[in-house]
Amino acid sequence: MRVLYLSRVRLNPYVDLLARGVETADPGIHAMQRPTLTWRRILLDRRWRILHLHWVEIQYAYGLTDHDRARQNLDILLRQLAHLQKQGRKIVYTVHNINHHEGQHPDLNQRANRWLFTHADAIHVHNRLAARQVKQRYGREQSVYAIPHGNYIGVYPNVIGRQQARERLQIPADHFVYLYLGQIRPYKGLDALIAAFLKNDMPDATLILAGQINDADCKRRLKRLAGEHPRIRLIPKFIPGDEIQTYCNAADICTLPYRDATTSGAALLAFSFGKPIIAPALGPFPELLGDQERGLLFHPEKDDLASTLARARNAALAQMGATALAFAQDRDWKTIGGQHARVYHHLLNNRP
Fold it and tell me: Residue 240 and residue 206: Cα distance in Å, rounded?
């Protein structure tokens, strides 16, 4: 069996990890990866039977695509998908985001979702809440599979300790360090995080915000909010894989103050380094944190992020971190790959 994984995401290794996990779990499956379906030879390649699609929104609107061009791209994509199904091929769609986070081309996002949630042969979600949202918003209930997000253990180096990491970042050894690490985008709420950090009087604490910012307005706003504050470190650049350990191992806790989320690879990254998280009580986070065993939840409608930052300083972070790491270890890609492989076999009416 050949499975074609379709994704234009380059920086997140999710699809590569999934493909390798599937192949490891089921050697009878061969994974192919492509960014788009625009190559005619891919469409005509009869070897693959299943298309596993990720992040549909950047299939038709990659970068700063204007609406007319995005609409034309979506027209082509949906025709291609319908044609593939007529050939007897199966389509699996992983729901990374139900809504486009920046609100770009909302009408096209709705149209793409309606088509996929109506016609895809299988829908993959990462948690029970996403399955409920798919049912409530689009009426899709059949062939919806909840398979969790895998971990990042071993994906990035993890050989330096806390002291060395802090020396590299020039952070005092006795400071309490809050970390946000990942792409910096408006919906991730870092403006609220800066405001909450400044609201607390914590002279022995440091806030690190590290990641690539593509939105110029967002970058200017965060720079203005952080100002020249000596204990806020805004690092607006892509963090290479071999440097991730420096930031994670320097931190006491990771902060994910999102305004919207369907799933969270950032939470699994933190857990993979044995770090608990602070996150809002929305989307996937209540399920990820359990009974706040792996971090602390705050309630955005109560505006209690600042108090949660302060509460973290007295929390049992070592125990939370150990529990978070164990949680991540249970989400290994071979196990997850095996669950996906069973879905593929079911679609092709083969015995698992």
Answer: 22
Q: Give 209-226 pLDDT, tens digit per residue.
A: 999 998 899 999 999 999
Q: 53-67, 240-254, 267-281: which has the minimum mean pLDDT?
A: 53-67
Arithmetic mean of pLDDT, 189-195 = 95
CA proximity to 188, closest of 253, 257, 235, 234? 257
**Looking at domain 2-150+332-347, what is its CATH homologous superfamily?**
Glycogen Phosphorylase B; (3.40.50.2000)
Q: Would you give the DSSP letter of residue 213?
A: B
- Nearest in space to 80 (alpha carbons), one of 106, 53, 102: 53
| Pair 166, 179: CB distance under 8 Å | no
What whole-number distance in Å separates Cα of residue 24 and Cα of residue 271? Answer: 23
Those residues with Cβ within 8 angstroms of residue 77's Cβ, 6 or more apart along the chain or in another chain: 37, 56, 59, 60, 112
Is residue 190 predicted with pLDDT exceeding 60? yes
CATH superfamily name and code, 162-329: Glycogen Phosphorylase B; (3.40.50.2000)
Where do the CATH 3.40.50.2000 domains begin and end in the chain? 2-150+332-347, 162-329
Q: What type of residue sits at position 263?
A: T
